[in-house]
């Protein structure tokens, strides 16, 4: 699946400024196409939005539940994703714990783990190594488009609801049912 898919990191309401920088470094290490602020319309087209949150329907990231290009939404370190942020997500992943456990991982640690799993699933090529270091490119190639908008999260939620409703209408016209709504997302995001 190399080069046909990409990952995007969406950050909203991260309390500690240094965590945004650390997420950006992890994004660079794991081939993320760009880091954006919630509300960017371009990142909803052609990709799923994956909330990194422990929810009832969340899948373990180790199962690699990805289907195509994915924008990852990470929540606040203390409170996680808000209900409004959850409303714009197409699916959720969580990071299984195997030891004594902790309530949650630091947002930058969680981001690194999730982005690594996406890179493995997507078949991103491993960066070359020289000695005991990875070779760093002069500048990211095909990354960091850097286009932002200032849409409110409410506007994004409303737009996504309309797109999902339109997908249901398309499915009904083609003899489908609402139970196939998640499959209709593919119809909404094709160019």
Automatic annotation (TrEMBL):
SUPFAM superfamilies xref list: alpha/beta knot (SSF75217)
Gene Ontology terms: biological process: methylation; RNA processing
Chain segments annotated as transmembrane: none
Alphabetical list of Pfam families matching this protein: SpoU_methylase (PF00588)
Record's keyword annotation contains Transcription regulation: no
Record domain tRNA/rRNA methyltransferase SpoU type: where: 44-116
Superkingdom of the organism of origin: Eukaryota
Record keywords: Methyltransferase, Transferase
PANTHER family from the UniProt entry: OBP33PEP LIKE PROTEIN, RRNA METHYLTRANSFERASE 3
This protein's name: tRNA/rRNA methyltransferase SpoU type domain-containing protein
Species for this entry: Miscanthus lutarioriparius
